[in-house]
């Protein structure tokens, strides 16, 4: 039992440490040299992340049909978590438009992808990308509609990540192969995305505001708790294979996405509160994620 516990603890450390180390590099660098990541984040969203998406989806080993149940279960977790938490907003004393998006749309990109890959190996990358795509697609459709019901969803088709997704789906079904030089070029661009996401998260952590710590603490508890409860309730219906259920549990336990703050700022939806929810939620994940990893590994 002691050997097993040590082995699990070692795997959790090997999974968490590289992620936390890169986040810390971003945090301490930005503390010493104030850093504006706006341009880098835009480039990551417009170029590196779409390259990662297409790189994974165009790979010969990627078969989209294998991930339909996982994608559907993830989509239900995103939507139903909002339904589950919505009645609590009045109790907490926060507007649903402010609180629900961070609870629903989690850090599936700059934390979820590297976390799943480090925990389960490179073979888990396609599943991690699928989960990221589900969360992002819902964020830029349902999430924007929650904040503004006049949002034009057709504008989605102009987003590089959506274009890369459509192109990747077409490529995965067509069974075409890219010339090796072009594939290497796209792969190398995509490999920049994850470390840059983690570094940017560290930089963002320098702006932590504990003024609204109570709402942030509620968010840090409710986001993973609602996700995990729903994942456990959905498993008997979907009967996901053990590995896919492990991916789903990690996805369900993720903290609020940093993107929630950027979107709330754009729509002027109490960004100061959303910042507290996002940042305290990500700090809280240092407690939740190891527990989930201990269960799934």
Automatic annotation (TrEMBL):
Going by the UniProt record, its keywords in alphabetical order are: Cell membrane, Membrane, Transmembrane, Transmembrane helix, Transport
Q: Which Pfam families match?
A: Mem_trans
Provide the protein's localization: Cell membrane
Membrane topology is: Multi-pass membrane protein
> Could you give one GO CC term from the UniProt record?
plasma membrane
| TM region(s), chain numbering | 12-31, 43-62, 68-88, 100-121, 127-147, 154-173, 185-203, 215-238, 244-261, 273-296
Q: Single Gene Ontology BP term? A: transmembrane transport
Xref: InterPro entries: Mem_transp_PIN-like, Na+/solute_symporter_sf
* N-terminal signal peptide: none
- Tagged with keyword Acyltransferase: no
| Similarity-based family | Belongs to the auxin efflux carrier (TC 2.A.69) family.
Name of the protein described by the UniProt record = Auxin efflux carrier
Organism listed in the record: Nitrincola nitratireducens
Provide the taxonomic classification.
Bacteria, Pseudomonadati, Pseudomonadota, Gammaproteobacteria, Oceanospirillales
């Amino acid at each position: 039992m002691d050997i097993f516990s040590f082995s699990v603890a070692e795997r959790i450390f090997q999974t968490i440490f590289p992620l936390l180390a890169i986040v810390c590099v971003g945090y301490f660098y930005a503390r010493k040299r104030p850093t504006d990541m706006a341009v880098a984040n835009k480039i990551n969203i417009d170029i590196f992340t779409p390259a990662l998406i297409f790189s994974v989806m165009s790979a010969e080993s990627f078969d989209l049909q294998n991930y339909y149940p996982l994608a559907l279960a993830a989509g239900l977790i995103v939507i139903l978590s909002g339904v589950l938490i919505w009645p609590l907003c009045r109790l907490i004393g926060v507007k649903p438009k402010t609180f629900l998006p961070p609870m629903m749309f989690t850090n599936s990109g700059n934390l979820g992808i590297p976390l799943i890959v480090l925990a389960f190996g490179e073979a888990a990358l396609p599943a991690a990308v699928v989960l990221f795509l589900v969360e992002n697609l819902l964020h830029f459709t349902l999430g924007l509609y929650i904040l503004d019901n006049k949002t034009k969803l057709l504008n989605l088709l102009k987003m590089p990540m959506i274009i890369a997704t459509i192109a990747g789906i077409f490529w995965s079904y067509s069974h075409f192969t890219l010339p090796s030089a072009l594939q290497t070029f796209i792969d190398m661009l995509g490999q920049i995305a994850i470390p840059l996401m983690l570094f940017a998260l560290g930089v963002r952590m320098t702006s932590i505001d504990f003024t609204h710590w109570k709402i942030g603490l509620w968010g840090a508890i409710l986001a993973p708790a609602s996700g995990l409860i729903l994942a456990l309730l959905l498993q008997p219906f979907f009967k996901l294979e053990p590995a896919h259920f492990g991916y789903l549990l990690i996805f369900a336990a993720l903290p609020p996405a940093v993107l929630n703050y950027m979107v709330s700022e754009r729509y002027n939806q109490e960004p100061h509160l959303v910042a507290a929810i996002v940042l305290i939620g990500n700090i809280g994940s240092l407690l939740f994620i190891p527990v989930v990893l201990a269960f799934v590994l």
